[in-house]
């Protein structure tokens, strides 16, 4: 495989790969594309409309497909959004089946859609899929039916184990750009960042900080208004404020000033990018010990508490406050960096090319 690779990155058709990011998957894909380009590779990104124009983006044109009235009249017709997403990925995979080898050396699928996996056998260059979530029905079905057609990576050891019943996945932990997430002085309120949704349980972060006697700032989008009004709004006040969905620069300033960051998943977190971002800013993390967070938050960089135990999380907040910010930052640079992540993906791309050439 050549030194300068031609890489096709397949991303979400629903959420743009651009700031402010909808979530960790979009942030990881954006950072991966930027770093591969910086290293001199040729990167083509297939992503949702509105993605970063600084990248070579081909829009996965979701809105254009509209089922006919006859098709929509079918009693089993799926929702329009499902059909539009299906149409976008079907069109992409048919295009790749026709001419991938003349355009790319490798296809790297970072979407959560099943079609890139199910149709991997039609593409005549290596295709690797990063598993960003635990098994979900449609994607699990695609992996089960064609496990040998695609290669797999996983965003953590935990996620790799979750998929081990179907296919081996090389663990490549996510990384953050430690040159952009810069250290700050700390000493300010606690911070919780991410999507304000039930499965991330920010309301429990508010309760834990109240018990620990430390004010909390929440930053992130509100995709679930009902949850926000039910669980978050009644808890807001002088000791807990929501500052909205921040761009990278503003969020870096906020995390750098924070005394501690909280991560409170109500599910088994596949990785926990917000923890890596906080630690890159030198801010220790108090988190629930769920999913992969044990792989991300080392003892010198924070403290863990049993999932769902708010009182134990308050104790973890107090413990994390005592961590040395320099040690927290060093841990992030050594173990959570974008450079390390992309080094590992480059090695994976090249190994797939050598295996294909030897076949």
TrEMBL record:
In this protein, which residues make up the domain named Glycosyl transferase family? Answer: 193-321
Instruction: Give the Enzyme Commission number.
Output: 2.4.-.-
The terms under GO molecular function for this entry are:
glycosyltransferase activity
Q: Which UniProt keywords apply?
A: Glycosyltransferase, Transferase
Please report the stretch or stretches of sequence annotated as the Glycosyltransferase subfamily 4-like N-terminal domain.
Answer: 23-180
This chain belongs to the protein called: Glycosyltransferase
Q: Which organism is it from?
A: Nocardioides kribbensis
